[in-house]
Amino acid sequence: MSDTFRALVIEDQDGKQKATFKDLTVGDLPDNDVLVEVSYSTLNYKDGLAVSGKGIARRLPMVGGIDLAGTVLESASDEFKAGDKVLVNGFGLSELYWGGYSQKQRLKSDWLIKLPDAFTMREAMAIGTAGYTSMLCVMALERAGVTPDKGEVLVTGAAGGVGSVAISLLAKLGYTVIASSGRQETHDYLKKLGASEVISREETMGKGRPFDKERWAGAVDCVGSSILASVIAQINYGGAVAACGLAGGNDLPTSVLPFILRNVSLLGVDSVMAPKALREEAWSRLATDLDKSIFDDMTTLEPMSNLPALAEQILAGQVKGRVVIDVNA
Predict the structure, then answer these.
(1) Is residue 34 part of a domain?
(2) Cβ–Cβ contacts within 10 Å for residue 81, how many?
(3) Start-to-end Cα distance in the chain
(4) pLDDT at residue 311 above 90?
């Protein structure tokens, strides 16, 4: 076993955050109770922000990567032993704690869950935080009473990671899914995932009024801002929106009218600090409800060395589906 390994480390350089590749040793890693040999990580929008130095890292130096899948090398926890296949999503990785863009990492056992038998490590990272968040959104809509017979369900930001997996999950569960995308070239891809129809971002906006014609039984929103406001205005009586993203902005220019006149529910979905029981439920559902045949169309595999360029691409809206990062390449 080599004494050194490679990691993408975010540091302060002349008052700005900058990510560079460095050789580390196990002694450089945080003092947590489980040492993992990392096989794969992923690229999410939040990773793009971190690697591009947009201030996501709140402690420096910081190893980026909010996801990882790997094999336990050493464990001081009774819950895990050497040889266990594990994964982590969120929990402040890449922001407060060192994350997955490293060939080895020490992690808290409380963050880890065992890799479901249904998935390889590469498949688990094809799902990653984005897909796991999609499952949390679907579960939130189910709890709110949005069933397939209630009408069409809209997915905004549909060509991104969360949107792609949400479409596949909802379609397999029997929902009629309408995908909203600002990229014409993704329409065939979205229909292949299970969307019955693809509409433009402009059509999603409707008339931009706080209270509009009823159209959707429910929605998964990955965009926020004026898009989310327009979607809320078009939700059917008693419907719900699961909101999990802010690619379009963190403001929400809406009114109370849809909530008090149509009994609409806005369901905030957090994947970062979700309790372990909910995480395990979501991954169990993914094992049964996600059609693994979508991985080939939805996923690209990239070496860790390409991360700086990939980060800029995802922030520019140029990444389709999911990107799995091979940390050993």
Answers:
(1) yes
(2) 11
(3) 17
(4) yes
CA distances from 187 to 69, 197, 203, 292 (A): 31, 9, 14, 20
Give which of 30, 33, 26 is closest to 1, Cα–Cα: 26
Taking Cα atoms as reference points, which of 204, 106, 126, 122 lies closest to residue 158? 204
The arrangement of strands across the sheet holding 265-268 comes to 197-200, 177-181, 153-155, 216-221, 235-243, 265-268
Q: What angle do CA 41, 42, 46 make, to 5 degrees?
A: 125
Distance in angstroms (rounded) separating the CA atoms of residues 86 and 107: 11
What percent of the chain stands above pLDDT 90?
A: 89
Q: Is residue 276 part of a domain?
A: no
Residues 139, 12 share a domain: no
Tokens 């969120």, located at residue: 90
Residue 135 and residue 262 share a domain: yes
For residue 168, which amino acid is it?
S
Q: In angstroms, rounded to a whole number, what is the distance separating the alpha carbons of residues 223 and 212? A: 19
Neighbouring CB atoms inside 10 A of 309's CB total 10
- The answer to whether residue 120 sits within a structural domain is no
Give me the pLDDT at residue 2, please.
61
Q: What is the pLDDT of residue 232?
A: 97
The residue type at 122: R
| CB atoms inside a 10 Å sphere around CB 244 | 24
- Sign of torsion, CA 307 313 316 321? negative
Farthest CA pair distance, the chain? 64
